[in-house]
Amino acid sequence: MQVNTAKFLESNPSVKTCPSPHLPEYAFIGRSNVGKSSLINAMTNRKNLAKTSSTPGKTQLINHFLINESWYLVDLPGYGWAKVSKSQRRDFEGLITEYLSERSNLVVTFVLVDIRHEPQAIDLEFFQWLGESQIPFAIVFTKSDKLNNSKLIASLERYETVLKSRWEALPPHFITSSAKNEGTDEILDYIEKYNQALEEKFAQIHPVKVIKEVPENENYSQKQSKKEQTKKVKSNKKEQTENELNEFEKKTFENNTKQKTTKFNKKIASKHTVPFSDSKNEFRGKNKKSSTKKNFKGKSQRPKK
Question: What pLDDT, on the 0 to 100 scale, is given for residue 302?
Answer without folding.
Answer: 54
